[in-house]
Each structure stands twice: as C-alpha cells, then as structure tokens.
Design goal:
The complex is a heterodimer of chains A (about 250) and B (about 450). Chain A is α/β, with parallel strands linked by helices and about 250 residues long. Helix content of chain A is about 30%, strand content about 20%. Helix content of chain B is about 30%, strand content about 30%. Chain B starts with a strand and ends with a strand. Strand 6 of chain A pairs antiparallel with strand 9 of chain B.
C-alpha cells in the first residue's frame, strides 16, 4: 500500500505522463513555424511532424501562405499542394523566400481524389510537406489521413472552412485564422486563434505581423499618410525603400 | 559439382499458351528456364528437362541446403515441377526419370536412363548389363569397338571423368510472354491477376539482365464477336528505369480501371518496348540516411496515371511582364528536375532567376474577376480601399487581342484582406479622356 502522504502530483513520471494543464512536450519532432509568438504557444515549439495541422479560414479568405511560408522555406524538399483554390504565384512567393519550382500542384476536384492524392504524397520519401485544401471532408476520412500522416513523418496542413470548427476533428492542432482586419489591431496583421492543441486551451488571439519587408514598408507609408485626401503611395517609392533596406542590411 | 534437373509437370504445359502440345511443352520449359536463371547462369536444356549447375552459386544463397530449400519450397515456380539432383548432370537427369531412383547410387542406375545407351539396350541386356556400374566394368576398348565412342564418352561424363559442356540458356533481348487465362475475364480490373503473373516473370527477366523497364505493353486477346476488336492494349511508361513490380502493377491497375472490355478476354501478353541498364543502388553507411517511402518519380507517375497528366503540375518561370504569363504550370514528368531545384538551389541565390518582388501577391486568379463598381470605386463584398498604386503595365501591344494596358493597385477589403486589383486602361487618345468614368476593375491576385 502507498503511504497516504504520497499524492499523485508528487510522483515524477517524467515525460511519460502529460498533465492536461501543461503544454505537451512534443512526442514527435516539430518544425519551427518561424513566428515567435506562435512557436511559444505550440507544443514542442513548432508545427508537428507526422500529424494533421488544421487551418480554418472564413470563406473567400486564403491567408495560409503567410502562416506557413517561414516553415516551408526552412525545410528543403518538394512541397505538394493538393487542390489549391488559386494558382500559387511564383514571383510573389519568391520574394517571400519560397522557390515556386519546389511546388507540385495536384489538381483534383473530387474530395475522394484529393484525399487519395494527399495520402500518396505523404508516402513519398522526398516530399517534406503536404498542403491539402479539403473543403468537404468527413471526420472519418480525416482520421484515415491522420493515420497515414503518423506513419510518414511529414508536415501536413489541411485547409478547411471556418464553419468546420464546430465539428470534431482528429487533428492534433487546429488554428482559426480570424478575419483579416479588425478594429483595434494593426491592419493586416495575421490573427490566429488556437482552437485545439495538446495543452490547455489558449484564450487570447495571437497577432502575427506577417508581411514581407517591402510590402510592410509600403503599408507603413500608407499608415503614416492617412490624411483626409485619398493619397496613394506610389509603388516606385516603395521599391526604392525596399532597395535601401536591402542595402543597409 | 552439384546438378539439379527440373522437368515441368504435365499440368504446367496446359497453362502456358495456345498452340500445339509440343509448343506448349517448349513454352513451359522456357518459362521454367527463365525462372531457374535466377539461381545460376548455367542452365541448359536436355530433351524435355532443364539442368542447373549450382555449385558456383551455392555460397551466394547460403549453402547447398539453403539453396535447395529456396528452390523446392520457399520460392517454388508457379507451375508444378519435378526435381532430381546428382553430382553430374547425367546422374541428375537419370534420377529425374523415376522418383524411385532419387537415392540410388550411380552404379545402380538402370541403363535406360542413360540416353546414349538407349539404342543398344537390347544387346546390353543380353550381355547381362542392366546398370551403369556393370557397363562401366566392361573393358573400355571392347565397349568402344562394339557400341561406338559416344557411349563411352557419355559414361565418362556421367561419372565426372570428362567435363560437361552444354549450350547454356540465354535470356532473349526482349521480354515477351503470353498467358492463357484459366477462365474468361469480363472486366478490365480483373485482368490484373493475370498481369501480376506476367510481371513476376518480367521481374526475373529484368533481374537477370540487370535492366529496368521504361515502356511496357500489355495486350489482351478477346473473344471474336461481331463489330468488336479482338485485340486491346495498354501502354505503361516510366520516366526512370524501374524494376519495381509493385509500382508497375499499380500503374497498370490505374489504367485498367478506366478500360471497358467489349468482349471477354482469354489471353494476355506482356512485352517490353524499351529497357535500360539499371544502375545499382548506393548503399549508405549511416542507417538513417535512407528515408523510407516511395520515390518522387513513382509519386508523379501514380498521380498522373489516375488524375491525368494535366492535373499534376510544376512551375516554370518565364520572362514576361504580364503576371499571368510570368509562370507556366506544366505537367510534372521528370522528378529529377524537381529534386534538383530542391536540393541544389535552395536559399536566396536560387531565386534570382525568378523575377520576384514583394509587391506581387502570392495567389493569382486563373482569370481576372471583374469587380462591381459603385460611384467609380471598385467593390468586392464591400468597398475596397486603394492602398498603393498605380503600377502601370503596358505589354503585349504587339499582339492583337492580347494587349494588356493596366494600372495595378493594392486594395484592402474589410472581409478578404489585401487584394491585387487592376483597372483596365482603354487604348487610344480619345478613350483616355473619359477613362475614369467607365473604367473596368478586375481582381487579379490575393496577398495571403
């Protein structure tokens, strides 16, 4: 019999037991997301490898590149896009550090074909990350995808509509990208709400300043000159500002 | 020396092909010969049997017993086969004639099992000579005079006193095998079971020739009916030489799933159209340097086989000013190009040859979407605030109907975030005056 003074809390189980009030130390490897504020709140300090990370967005909003690009630029290897909503624009992605020639665009209309393509991509040894846009997916299908992800240690992001946040999901991490612009925060900052993680739920919304330097300069210029007149910032000026920044660095 | 003699069982001949009985036997023997070549390069045909000399390859297979276990049990040929073994080919062949002789010593083997003695059997029997040992005990000079030198030479070979030389079996340059199906097949996916057997034979052929397959043709013969073709075929292609039958089988499965058969199929044929020498796999000293999983090439081929080549795309940058022509998404065929991009040229330097700018969006609409205009201002689910611009673009004026005269703006939407929109300028002097009034606004990109 255990002595009565020995409570469960005083026992040290090491990493084998995870208490629900603490952030889980990641069971598997992670890849830093590149956003400091987000990394601090993610178990293991980054995107989990070999598990689904679900990203929910309101209809018509496609802000995933901002969130994912820092991590994708750090992991060399092909990235498979399954059913992206629009064409990824190489020149724009290039300025943010991602060579678009690394991307493999798999177009598939049927939900079943998208799931199949995502599963096949996970099986490939060379592929480092799979981004799947699955607007219509059922929980049991996601569970199957999660099992496939577990056996192959890859980054897997599933983009779903914000309406899916009330459904249960087998994803270990669920993020909601809030509306792009809300009063009270810096315009164009990325607002991320963590719906689910291995750890205590996060009450507040994270605000990530996620714009590339040139664009940020341009937007800052615009912010300064918010006078009554509809004064537009000429793009050429911003280009010069960008060059100056680059020269100074 | 260790010899193994094989003869396909009477049942095996039937499954092989159409044609006369003699043809069927020869085909079965050839198929068995291809199977046997995986154990030793010394495979010879003697009448209706195959002879394998395995002493040189015993070590490779882990010893004589391990090799026998491999041949007899764990990796049996598909069709039933009779086996016998002996120290020389003629002993093994003699023991193959009758199962009761499997353990008989060479001296006690009956004379009719020696092919060279068959013409003289009656005479030898009258001499009281019934076994090899008795014939061997006769004086050699007398035997040579009475029965000729060939008998003596055969006896010498049988006892290992002279070397045994045969025309060794060599695989054909092109793999071409047919398979008569046991039952008629009505649906195309069910052909996969027959294809699996042919692919197994192909794998042996590829292994022994150290080749990988680039293009394969799977043909089937259908029942003759009115108004339908009697032949159908399927072409399987692989960008890299492949000896992985699981991959080829999956490709065949994907393609067969889309085939409808007008009539039942009774025979299958598999033929290599193009093969290439296969480079050996580089082994790594470190255990984790090799990742598990399929190769990228296999992924590309599998995705293209099911979804269509136009659905699996990779980007090619182009020197252009019009955003929609700055990049071409073309079918990804060759994985090595994709891998080279990923491995050799990561980092900022690689991006130099893409005309990139932070002022470009990350998503591009395939076709620009026209925006509603209220009081000269573009709207998209609410009013759009112009943030920066204009960036003037004039390109394509040298091509009729492809002229782009646009002013690009960054616009902010309450709901959708930062957008990349443009106002189409009308060409000509007269149009410039009232350009503002009826300007057309288009959404062309999203900043994600």
């Amino acid at each position: 019999m255990l002595p009565s003074s020995l409570s469960v809390a005083s026992l040290d189980f090491g990493a084998a037991v995870w208490r629900a009030d603490a952030l889980a130390c990641a069971a598997g490897a992670t890849v830093a997301s590149g956003h400091g504020a987000l990394d601090a709140e993610l178990p293991g300090g980054g995107w989990p490898l070999g598990a689904i990370s679900e990203i929910l967005q309101p209809p018509g909003v496609w802000q995933e590149w901002r969130l994912l690009l820092p991590a994708l630029t750090r992991t060399p290897g092909p990235v498979v896009l399954v059913g992206p909503p629009h064409a990824p624009f190489g020149p724009g992605l290039g300025a943010r550090g991602l060579d678009a020639r690394r991307l493999l665009w798999v177009g598939a209309a049927a939900p079943a074909a998208r799931l199949w393509a995502a599963e096949q991509a996970l099986r490939c040894a060379e592929v480092v990350a799979v981004l799947a846009w699955l607007p219509q997916v059922r929980t049991e299908q996601l569970r199957r995808l999660q099992l496939a992800a577990q056996t192959h240690s890859k980054l897997l992001f599933v983009m779903r509509p914000a309406a899916a946040q009330s459904e249960s999901s087998p994803a270990v991490l669920r993020l909601l990208l809030a509306r792009a612009l809300t009063a009270g925060v810096a315009p164009d900052a990325l607002r991320v709400q963590i719906l689910k993680r291995r750890g205590a739920p996060l009450a507040h919304t994270l605000v990530l300043p996620a714009r590339p330097a040139g664009l940020a300069v341009l937007l800052a210029l615009r912010g300064d000159s918010q006078g009554p007149g509809q004064q537009l910032v000429a793009m050429e000026e911003a280009g010069h500002a960008l060059d100056c920044l680059a020269a100074g660095a | 020396m260790h010899w193994i003699a094989l003869r396909p069982g009477p049942e095996a001949a039937r499954t092989s092909s159409t044609g006369s009985v003699a043809d069927e036997g020869a085909d079965a023997l050839l198929a068995l010969g291809e199977w046997a070549l995986q154990y030793t390069p010394k495979v010879a045909r003697l009448d209706d049997a195959l002879l394998l000399e395995v002493s040189a390859s015993e070590r490779l297979w882990g010893g004589w017993r391990a090799l026998l276990r491999q041949i007899y049990t764990s990796n049996k040929p598909v069709a039933p086969v009779h086996y016998a073994r002996g120290a020389t080919s003629l002993i093994a062949y003699a023991r193959l004639q009758d199962k009761a002789l499997a353990r008989t010593s060479p001296d006690d083997l009956p004379l009719h099992t020696l092919a060279a003695a068959r013409p003289h059997l009656a005479t030898l029997h009258r001499l009281g000579c019934n076994h090899w040992g008795q014939l061997r005990a006769l004086p050699r000079g007398g035997v040579a005079r009475r029965f000729g030198a060939p008998l003596l030479a055969a006896l010498d070979r049988a006892y290992g006193l002279q070397p045994e030389l045969y025309p060794w079996l060599v695989l054909p340059d092109v793999f071409d095998a047919t398979l008569a199906l046991d039952a008629q097949v009505e649906t195309a996916p069910a052909l996969l079971f027959g294809a699996r057997r042919l692919l197994a034979a192909l794998q042996l052929w590829l292994q022994s020739r150290h080749r990988g397959v680039l293009a394969l043709e799977l043909c089937w013969t259908m029942d003759a009916r009115r108004n339908t073709a009697t032949q159908g075929q399927l072409l399987l292609r692989s960008a890299e030489p492949s000896a992985d039958m699981a991959h080829l089988l999956r490709l065949a499965g994907e393609q067969l799933a889309r085939v409808t058969l007008p009539a039942p199929v009774h025979a299958l044929r598999l033929r290599t159209l193009e093969t290439q020498k296969l480079a050996g796999e580089t082994a790594s000293l470190l255990p984790d340097a090799r990742r598990s999983g399929d190769s990228l090439q296999q992924l590309l081929e599998r995705l293209s086989a099911r979804l269509g080549a136009q659905q699996v795309l990779q980007m090619q940058p182009c020197d252009e000013h019009r955003p929609e022509k700055m990049q071409v998404w073309q079918p990804a065929v060759n994985a090595s190009q994709l891998i080279a991009t990923c491995e050799g040229r990561t980092g900022a330097r690689a991006l130099k040859d893409i005309n990139s700018s932070a002022l470009y969006p990350t998503w591009l609409l395939a076709t620009p979407r026209q925006l509603a205009v209220h009081q000269k201002h573009p709207h998209d689910l609410g009013p759009l605030t112009l943030v920066a611009g204009p960036q003037r673009l004039e390109a394509g004026w040298w091509v009729a109907d492809d002229c782009a005269l646009r002013d690009y703006f960054l616009a902010r939407s309450e709901r959708l975030g930062l957008l990349w929109i443009y106002r189409e300028r009308l060409s000509g002097q007269g149009a410039a005056a009232n350009a503002d009034a009826d300007a057309q606004w288009y959404l062309h990109g999203l900043f994600a």
